[in-house]
């Protein structure tokens, strides 16, 4: 037998590799396309077999619910059922109250849809979708049923049955036919994010990252954090394994936010020290920075799996335990060197030691945050772990006024179209009003709702033409359900393919949903060209009006909304300075997640406006740095020993409180006068803490009394460096070219 040649073996390997690449890219698109069409036709066939009055509703539901990952389908289905039931109850109540008063019925329905749309804009992920469906289902069930109030209950029940059938068909096909689980995506995301963050830390500490790359990396981290939370919230619907690790995954997201914020603050402080020429402090700390990168390796290899992170977590824990004593020794050497230099007449800045103390404190806290983050990552290697019990949920932050605008806009559109329907008695007025409700609700979740509504209108126009060909040119010439599937599959496949392309997703959504609505066959097919054209015109008109409303009535791209969200972003510092330290999710967790959520919204609104994107990034950095320092300051103040010298009515505590008050006022409404007041209050607090350390808490005082004040002094000094940073968005409010000094006393001893 002749052995195969090496060339043939290589060709075979190339073919296998090419097929694997196709299967992981375009192959997934074709798989999703097949599953979506199979679920739609399955729902249609069962609805026809059960003789439901409107099988097209079941098929339409499939395209609303279907997602590439199984967890997303289950989550979306769960919230759709919840929203459907809520909308059903509300609409039956409205029909019972206002069936004989069409004006009041339309007004109350518009009000309910507006409330639900505002709730959808207020919430995140598929919880937002539940609000969308609560409003849309009310219109979908109630407006047609209002024409025949005597049969409203049965009409509502059958509509819920059709919707439920579409949901079950979607879930069944998604779970059985080559399922793709969100949990697998989460595991790969966790590995990739841990590795990329370690590489970023190593490169930054090595001085190999410029500011533009830092901004791009942190912007990517923001999107990654928000997307990770969305995936985590859907993965819990998939399997017990995902539910057992859900708390640790949420904790990882929180710890990643804390570690990345802490590292950025440290990196920015070191850059400021280099720019100010304080090389002695930089050189004293750089040996510690060079020790970090090897700690994230296992036997010289990077960490790839959660099991490998166990070794890294142990290395970080051991390193952190030795750090305080080593830092104290380094500081003593730096202090002795400065004393020797002063003895021979050299002059050193009085804040050099305070700079070292502040940087060392940040470095220690960063090592601690990374140790926690790595330990949680390592805990994912086992099914159950004690870290699962520590719950820290991502807390989104949304502008209430913006959410209210979405609701008012939807109510106005429904009210205007409802008035037009009543005035003209248009037979397709029901479709006009209820699909305006659907378009407003669905598009309001998009960063560019006017564009989304316009795309949906374009997709609906194309669906109207294709649906006309199917209804009047194809259906009369076929017989039986198999031939019906053959006729529908190519038309539906085109729309599903469009939904897989982000640039054309709006066209695909409008095409799929409303092709089913217009051309989806019922058990008793009615060939009514006039009614078909009326319905198609009503659908397109409702979307055009919705798009116009999004473009005219306070569109999201207006400077007004941008400025409101930017004020909310700065307001996170106000929250950090004034809110309670304790709570259900903790102040720091609410601050970290809220800041990034607002940044994510602002990035979506920025579009191609790079100047605005950079401005929001600068404000995010300033907010995170200053807000975290304020929380650190407040936590250390709360942990002070019970002693009269630490009482809240002491003079030095008054200076610190004044710093927090003025800092809060500055970020609430930035201005030159408030900037000067915040900087002056900060200088006064630094001087008061130094005076306390030199006069009262001298070297003979117990360390448990001296050490907290030393940390408080470091937090105050870091706030000062953030305020006078020339790259900060607050820099234009500075009245002087050179920043004021921090007094003439040297920094106090402390070991991180």
Automatic annotation (TrEMBL):
The chain crosses the membrane at residues 29-50, 78-98, 104-121, 128-145, 165-183, 400-422, 457-475, 481-499, 504-520, 532-554. Keywords: Cell membrane, Membrane, Transmembrane, Transmembrane helix. It is found in: Cell membrane. Its main location: membrane. It holds the Pfam family FUSC. It is a multi-pass membrane protein. Residues 730-752 are annotated as: Disordered. Residues 733-745 have a biased composition (Polar residues). This is Membrane protein YccC. It comes from Paraburkholderia tropica. The lineage of its organism: Bacteria, Pseudomonadati, Pseudomonadota, Betaproteobacteria, Burkholderiales.
């Amino acid at each position: 037998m002749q052995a195969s040649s090496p060339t043939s073996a290589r060709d075979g390997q190339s073919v296998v590799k090419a097929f694997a690449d196709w299967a992981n890219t375009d192959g997934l698109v074709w798989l999703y396309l097949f599953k979506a069409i199979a679920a739609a036709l399955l729902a249609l066939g069962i609805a026809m077999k059960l003789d439901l009055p409107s099988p097209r509703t079941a098929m339409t539901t499939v395209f609303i619910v279907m997602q590439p990952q199984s967890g997303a389908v289950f989550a979306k289905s769960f919230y759709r059922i919840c929203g459907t039931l809520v909308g059903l109850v509300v609409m039956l109540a409205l029909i019972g109250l206002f069936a004989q008063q069409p004006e009041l019925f339309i007004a109350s329905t518009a009000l309910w849809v507006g409330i639900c749309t505002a709730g959808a804009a207020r919430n995140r992920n598929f919880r937002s979708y539940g609000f969308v469906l609560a409003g849309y289902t009310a219109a979908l069930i109630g407006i047609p049923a209002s024409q025949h109030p005597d049969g409203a209950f049965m009409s509502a029940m059958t509509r819920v049955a059709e919707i439920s059938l579409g949901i079950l068909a979607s879930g069944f096909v998604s779970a059985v036919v080559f399922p793709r689980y969100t949990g697998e995506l989460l595991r790969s995301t966790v590995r990739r994010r841990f590795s990329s963050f370690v590489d970023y830390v190593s490169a930054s500490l090595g001085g190999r990252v410029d500011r533009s790359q830092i901004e791009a990396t942190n912007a990517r981290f923001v999107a990654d954090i928000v997307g990770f939370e969305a995936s985590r919230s859907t993965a819990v619907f998939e399997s017990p394994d995902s539910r057992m690790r859900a708390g640790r995954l949420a904790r990882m997201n929180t710890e990643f936010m804390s570690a990345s914020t802490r590292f950025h603050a440290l990196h920015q402080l070191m850059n400021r020290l280099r720019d100010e020429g304080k090389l002695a402090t930089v050189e004293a700390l750089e040996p510690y920075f060079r020790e970090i990168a090897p700690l994230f390796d296992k036997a010289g290899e990077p960490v790839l799996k959660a099991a490998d992170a166990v070794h890294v977590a142990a290395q970080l824990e051991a390193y952190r335990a030795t750090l305080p004593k080593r830092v104290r020794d380094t500081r003593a050497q730096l202090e002795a060197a400065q004393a020797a230099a002063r003895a021979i007449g050299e002059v050193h800045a009085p804040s050099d030691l305070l700079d070292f103390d502040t940087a060392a404190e940040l470095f220690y806290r960063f090592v601690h945050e990374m140790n926690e983050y790595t330990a949680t990552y390592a805990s994912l290697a086992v099914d159950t772990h004690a870290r699962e019990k520590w719950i820290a949920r991502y807390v989104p932050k949304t502008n209430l006024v913006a959410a209210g605008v979405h609701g008012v806009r939807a109510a106005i559109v429904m009210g205007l179209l409802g008035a037009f329907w009543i005035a003209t008695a248009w037979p397709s007025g029901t479709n006009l009003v209820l699909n305006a409700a659907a378009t407003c609700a669905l598009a309001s979740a998009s960063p560019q709702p006017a564009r989304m509504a316009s795309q949906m209108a374009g997709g609906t126009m194309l669906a109207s033409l294709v649906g006309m060909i199917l209804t009047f040119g194809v259906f009369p010439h076929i017989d039986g359900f198999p031939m019906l599937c053959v006729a529908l599959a190519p038309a539906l496949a085109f729309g599903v393919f469009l939904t897989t392309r982000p640039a054309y997703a709006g066209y695909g959504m409008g095409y799929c949903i409303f092709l089913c609505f217009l051309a989806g066959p019922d058990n008793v097919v009615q060939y009514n060209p006039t009614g078909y054209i009326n319905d198609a015109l009503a659908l397109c008109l409702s979307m055009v009006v919705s798009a116009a409303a999004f473009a005219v009535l306070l569109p999201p791209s207006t400077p007004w909304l941008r400025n409101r969200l930017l004020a909310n972003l700065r307001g996170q510092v106000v929250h950090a300075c004034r809110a309670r330290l304790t709570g259900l999710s903790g102040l720091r967790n609410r601050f970290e997640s809220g800041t990034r959520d607002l940044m994510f919204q602002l990035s979506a609104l920025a579009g191609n406006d790079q100047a605005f994107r950079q401005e929001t990034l600068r404000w995010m950095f300033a907010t995170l740095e200053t807000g975290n320092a304020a929380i650190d300051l407040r936590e250390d103040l709360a942990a002070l020993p019970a002693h009269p010298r630490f009482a809240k009515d002491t003079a030095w505590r008054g200076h610190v409180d004044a710093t927090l008050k003025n800092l809060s006022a500055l970020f609430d409404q930035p201005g030159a006068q408030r900037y000067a007041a915040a900087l002056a209050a900060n200088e006064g607090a630094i001087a008061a803490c130094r005076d306390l350390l030199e006069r009262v808490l001298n070297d003979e005082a117990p360390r448990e009394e001296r050490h907290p004040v030393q940390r408080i002094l470091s937090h105050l000094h870091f706030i000062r460096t953030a305020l006078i940073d020339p790259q900060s968005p607050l820099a234009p409010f500075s009245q002087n070219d050179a920043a004021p000094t921090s007094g003439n006393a040297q920094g106090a001893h402390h070991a991180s």
